[in-house]
Known about the structure:
This protein has helices at residues 2-6, 14-38, 40-62, 66-88, 104-124, 137-141. It is mostly helical. The longest helix is centred in the first third of the chain and has 25 residues, at 14-38.
Amino acid sequence: MQNFYARPLNSGARWLAVAALVVAGAAHLPVIGEHLEEAPYMGVLFIVLTAACFALAAAMISFDPPVVYALAVLTCGLAIVGYAATRTVAFPQLADDVGNWFEPLGVVSVLSEALAVAVAGRVVTGRPVVRERRPHPVAIASR
């Protein structure tokens, strides 16, 4: 279990995960103030999510252990679930969000969070993010 927390993966895909985390965190910055006034609990959750995304991105750049990728999957996965929940159920002080699936910053955040989940999930499970290109058998035979 020690390796899960400390062993750097040196994954080439970490830069894609870092970019997705930074975009996810940045997408929440413009709406924090509005939510702190309208629904303070959601504003605080946005602050926590933004800080977590930036901290995870920094940890991926600096240390790159598997636990950081697992935390990115958990954090961004929960953010996506939260987005879907606020679009389907009227939360206190956020009833106007129900059905508003295509709010531009919401779409940006969900897409970037989904990318972070996909990339970090592949890295932490040891699956390649991008398949290696192998020459086509016909190309090899014609040489």
